[in-house]
Structure formats: structure tokens, C-alpha cells
Design a protein that fits this description.
Blueprint: E1 2-3, H1 5-11, E2 20-32, E3 35-46, E4 50-59, E5 71-79, E6 86-87, E7 90-93, H2 96-106
């Protein structure tokens, strides 16, 4: 079993045993209650065949918070040639600060 954090580390240009071989991104936006919401979906393909999808959704609602609300979702789309599972298969963060803390904790 492999931990999802080693793939997320590579996505964030941190040390990882796996390299990204390709990525594709799609972007969309829409209006919701007078605010613009944007969504970016990126599929990262790794050399071992694993595909991780990162979805980031945020709005332009004014916020003074250091870690404003933003939804970040990682999902294992394909486990490629990995034997066993990649765990967790899905990880959700409600802001970039939680994502950074989780990544630091799991990649020590």
C-alpha cells in the first residue's frame, strides 16, 4: 500500500519517489449568489501509471482570513502498476493551510 501523500508531494514539487509524466487541466467558472466561483481540475499522470485528480474550487467572496475557504480535493483515478491500494483514495481540504499541514505531517 502506498500513501497518497507521496503523490501530492510530487504535485507540490516536493521530494517524492514518483515523477509526473503528464498533466491536463480544465477550468470553468460560474456565478453563484452574485459571486464568481472558479473550478480547476487537473489530472496528474505519473511514470508508474497512477493518475491523481486535483480539483480546486473557490469563490471571489471577500475574506480577511489568512486561510480563506477553498475546496481542494485529491482523488485516485487510476492506480496504474501499483500493487495494493493507494490510501486514502480521496482526500478533501477546506483551505490551503490544512492541505499544507497535512502534507508536512505525512511527508516527514
Amino acid at each position: 500500500m502506498e500513501n497518497l501523500s507521496i503523490y501530492i508531494a510530487a504535485i507540490h514539487h516536493r521530494a517524492s519517489p514518483f515523477a509526473i509524466s503528464d498533466m491536463t487541466t480544465t477550468k470553468s467558472s460560474w456565478q453563484d449568489q452574485g459571486f464568481e466561483v472558479s473550478k480547476e481540475v487537473t489530472d496528474y499522470r505519473f511514470e508508474n501509471g497512477v493518475v491523481i485528480r486535483r480539483t480546486v474550487e473557490q469563490d471571489n467572496f471577500p475574506s480577511e482570513a489568512a486561510c480563506a475557504e477553498i475546496w481542494i480535493i485529491y482523488e485516485v483515478i487510476s492506480k496504474g502498476s501499483v500493487e495494493g491500494n493507494i490510501s486514502p483514495a480521496r482526500q478533501v481540504f477546506e483551505n490551503a493551510c490544512r492541505e499544507a499541514f497535512w502534507l508536512s505531517y505525512h511527508t516527514v
